Amino acid sequence: MDQIWWPRSEIPQRKPERPIMATSYEYDAAHRESWHAHAQGRFVVTMSGVLRVTTPIGMWTLGPQSGLWIAPRVAHELIATSAVSMHSVYFDPEASAWPESECHAVRVSSLLRELVAAMVEDRERDPQRRYALITPLLLSEMRDSRAASGGGLPLPLDRRLRQICDFLLAAPANGDSLAIWGERVGASERTLARRFKDETGLTFGHWRQQLRIVEAVSKLAQGARVAEIAAELGYANSSAFITMFRKTMGEPPQRYLKSEPR
Question: For 156-256, which CATH superfamily applies?
Answer without folding.
Answer: Homeodomain-like (1.10.10.60)
